[in-house]
Amino acid sequence: MKIRTILRERKLQLFFLGYVLLLVPSLSLIAQNAPSGMIMAGIAVSLGLLTVIFILSSFMTTPCIRIFYSFLLALSLLPGAICMGYLLFAKVMLSEGGMTVLFETNVEESKEFISAHLSPWVTLGIALYILCPVVMIFRMKHMAFHRVKEHKHLFVASVLLLCLFVAIEPVAQRIYFVDFYRVFADYKVRSVLEERAIRNRRQQPFEVRLDESQAPQTLLVVMGESLSRNHMSLYGYERNTNPLLQARRASLKVYRDVVSPQVHTIPVMRSVLSFADHAHPEYLTQRPSLFELFNRAGYETCLISNQPFDNVSSSYEPLLRQAGHIVDLSKTNRPDGVILHTLEQTLRADGRKLIVLHLMGSHTAYKFRYPPSFERFNGSQPADGAAAPVLPKAAAQTTIDQYDNSVLYNDWLIASIADMLNRRREPSAMIYFSDHGEEVYDFRDFAGHASEKVSRYMCEVPLIVWMSDEYMKQRTNLVFREDRPYSTCDLLYSLSDLAGLSYEGYDRTRSLFSPQFTVRKRFVGDLLYESVIRNTREYSLPDRIRKAGETTGNEGLR
């Protein structure tokens, strides 16, 4: 009877704790990437934590309860809003890797993501999510409290249980906001240690040999962003998104079976700029990275970036900052064509050069990635007479049009860069690839990329090589087989081959251009690429039609 009375008197406290601790775990029931057992375990742990906190609050005065609950709300509000938003947007639970990517996202990227995905209803939902618990705290009434000395065993047991909830990692991982801060702390410690290790390694001796008879005068590496080869007509896409590159097809090597090692920029960059791979992530700090290798070989190295990295503490920034010259054009807030003038000036410099261009490419929001003159595709006027795809909602067609326009603009940019190199009439080579792909309503009602629901569209990337006639005559020992299965985690071996470098640990079997090239297992995160393909195929055409009809009333899904 006494327990019932306590629950009735403190029902607002109980509702507050349920709101803060159970709402996100309960919403996890809609997640597509979590087994039911894991979700139930999360709900059970949250219920246990709710019980412990409710018991402890019975020993507090009303002012103390308000302070304690305000502190709990402050701790849980940001993680809760992020996890809930991600669940509603992507229908998946935010993973540890996803949280780490979130911590490294810069302000501009965050603004563009929000502008692309934040609807008025989502804004209203977030506002209510924040406001409701604040109102509940202020409406809590004064009531009697228990004295510790009268129930000291219960109090001590509750304090110990609370500590165990936070201290035992398998339990803490089931409490969404505790896990959020745990991952953040681990990430910050790891970043500090990695940056220190990279800085110390640069002082250590490491011999890089250069075969000048094999080396180009200019090696240009163009790193795109979020470009899926499945939206390139060069790879068979129905819209003509690559008219200029197709016109130059005879002078290009277009590799048809290339995948990225992850589906987010940060882990991909950590891999392609270093020797780190799925089997040996420790090589990020234990072995030289891209710019360090070429610096030691005597190349002049330059980074021209249209992606913001100045004042952004991303975990691959220490690798970029090893470039001898850095030009940050992101502050101009213009499409990628802004790099061409700087590139032309850099090419005029004397000496052997490695130039890396880091593009914004097809990054969300797609409509910001091209000037108005490249707004060619729209739903009412499909390219080349192709039938407009049937999509689950009208906004999806607009999104696809904007994405394809960004691909069209990228086509112009890469063709312009190749022409610029060709006019110089010197031994030179260019390799273009995208950090990862993008899913743009290709087989389900989703646009973007998320490691928690990876599909082949998110990891299948273009890789295109252009070489001057002078360099082709110089490098008759290279092999170009466009059907070779390849992962860009091995990019550093391939670039070393093109540049005529050799050093301890260099493995010719991992160069895309080597006669000794050997096919290896390809991982996308922790998944084999073959399993990613199988997961994508699970959404059969009949299911897509049925789901689109159930949710939107349309007949099918492109």
What does this entry look like structurally?
The chain is of the alpha/beta class. The chain has a seven-stranded mixed sheet, sandwiched between helices. A two-stranded antiparallel sheet has the order 1-13. Strand 14 and strand 15 form a beta hairpin. Helix 2 runs antiparallel to helix 7 and helix 3 packs antiparallel against helix 8. The termini are far apart.
List the helices and strands and how they pair.
Layout lengths: L1 H8 L1 H17 L8 H22 L4 H29 L5 H9 L2 H11 L2 H20 L12 H16 L1 H4 L3 H26 L6 E3 L7 E7 L18 H5 L4 E4 L2 E2 L5 H8 L10 H4 L3 H7 L3 E6 L11 H4 L4 E4 L10 H9 L5 E6 L35 H29 L5 E7 L4 E2 L6 E2 L7 H4 L3 E5 L1 H6 L11 E2 L3 H9 L1 E3 L19 E2 L2 E2 H9 L3 H12 L6
Parallel strand pairs: 2-7, 2-8, 4-12, 5-6, 5-7
Antiparallel strand pairs: 1-13, 3-11, 8-11, 9-10, 14-15
Helix pairs in contact: 2-3, 2-4, 2-7, 3-8, 4-7, 4-10, 5-10
In short:
The chain contains 22 helices and 15 strands.
Distance between the termini: 60 Å
- What is the number of beta strands? 15
Name the poorly predicted regions.
381-390, 540-558
Radius of gyration: 27 Å
Largest sheet, in brief, is: 7 strands, mixed
Taken from the alpha-carbon principal axes, the silhouette is elongated
The pLDDT mean sits at 88
Helix content: 40-55%
Portion in strands? 5-15%
* Spatial strand sequence of the major β-sheet: 3-11-8-2-7-5-6
Structural class determined from secondary elements = alpha/beta
How many H/I helical runs? 22
What distinguishing features does this structure have?
single chain; about 550 residues; alpha/beta; two-stranded antiparallel ribbon; 22 helices; disordered C terminus
